[in-house]
Design a protein that fits this description.
The chain is built from 13 helices and 2 strands, in the order H-H-E-H-E-H-H-H-H-H-H-H-H-H-H. It is mostly helical. It has one domain. Helix 2 runs antiparallel to helix 8, helix 6 packs across helix 7 and helix 11 runs antiparallel to helix 12.
Length: about 350
């Protein structure tokens, strides 16, 4: 599982200088292999809605596949390819203006971009790829839960009161992570996308899951099946949204935090998972569109289109299978098995890190 010879291995002593990259941006600079694209698509689809963290698994997989180089890429003339050109050559984007306004609102000064700019790297393209292939998982949820999305649409038109309540609750739960994500996105991108934070998040998340499972078994009273998701109160939706903010930490798992939040809101495991999936559709769509707008062009410039689309298709198929399986599993077994998996993964990663196989 390797990139084309032009960029692998980037760290080899004999390749201190990156070979020239074609200036024709229609040709990818370092197209993913079919195997790499397939592997990352499977990992995204399997882990996106299981409470084990898709981001954490993708961070580790990208490292193992050699997609984490921060060495700047150059064009054929030896000039750097830019993710963000030097400050003198660019204007503030609309998303940058919104972020600056939000920081001002909470009394923080926005970070000033480095005047020398941000070069385009393999690592930056791989991070974007890992977000963009979420489109596949999003599509799977849209198909599987189309009746609920149709009800929300009808509710927005004033034709379905239950659908309107669900729409309002989903939006309430979405807002906290959206705001916090805009404020801390760059800090997380710089500080937490590495193996050690993923290991810590896996352990912390496992502890939260075991606590939530014990709490549910002591306090939970089964709701009638026909109550559906309409039973969620707005303040409970806000609590689920607050817990979803923890998922900004790579390795924590958006699915896990929202299912746990559903437990605390009084939902049974099946309903908690369904609310998590529907909320995930909104959250993942927003994150994917934002990341695509921010650095999607840079990703395509490095990898090209074909294997990005392959990753999305593979993620869609595997996500659809895993969503159906997870609902049945949670109804009968709860979250404990996933907590133990997280602990085992954390131990394995720590051992690999200590042995020098991961950096």
């Amino acid at each position: 599982m390797a990139l084309v010879p032009a960029l692998l291995p980037l760290s080899a002593p004999a390749q201190e200088k990156i070979p020239a990259i074609p200036t024709d941006l229609r040709a990818p600079a370092a197209e993913l292999s079919v195997t790499d694209a397939f592997v990352l698509g499977v990992i995204e689809g399997v882990t996106e809605f299981l409470p084990i963290s898709s981001t954490g698994h993708l961070v580790v997989a990208s490292r193992a596949l050699g997609l984490d180089s921060d060495q700047p890429l150059m064009d054929a003339a030896g000039r750097p390819l830019w993710f963000k050109p030097p400050a003198a050559e660019r204007r503030e984007s609309r998303t940058g203006a919104i972020k600056r306004w939000l920081l001002h609102l909470v009394g923080r000064e926005p970070k000033v971009d480095a005047p020398e700019g941000i070069p385009l790297t393999l690592n930056l393209a791989a991070k974007t790829y890992n977000i963009v292939i979420q489109f596949g998982a999003i599509a799977a949820v849209a198909l599987l839960y189309w009746p609920q999305f149709r009800a929300m649409f009808r509710g927005a038109l004033g034709r379905d009161p239950a659908g309107l309540r669900l729409l309002i609750n989903v939006l309430i739960a979405f807002v906290p992570a959206a705001v916090v994500g805009l404020l801390v996105h760059d800090w997380i991108d710089t500080r937490l996308f590495s193996v050690v934070p993923v290991i810590v998040a896996q352990v912390v998340g496992a502890g939260l899951m075991l606590f939530a499972e014990q709490w549910r078994r002591r306090h939970f009273k089964l709701h009638a099946a026909d109550d559906g998701l309409a039973q969620v109160a707005p303040h409970a939706a806000a609590g689920i949204g607050a817990l979803q903010c923890l998922a900004l930490w790579p390795g924590m798992s958006r699915s896990m935090t929202t299912i746990v939040g559903g437990y605390f809101a009084g939902l049974d495991p099946r309903r908690a998972a369904e609310f998590s999936f529907i909320l995930g559709f909104v959250t993942l769509t927003a994150a994917t569109v934002y990341k695509s707008y921010q650095s999607g062009a840079a990703m395509i410039q490095v990898f090209g289109w074909s294997h990005v689309l392959l990753g999305c298709v593979v993620a869609a198929v595997t996500a659809a299978l895993c969503v159906r399986w997870l609902v049945g599993w949670l109804a009968g077994h709860g979250l404990a098995a996933f907590a133990y998996y997280r602990l085992a993964m954390a131990a394995a990663l720590a051992a690999l890190l200590a042995a020098g196989y991961l950096q």
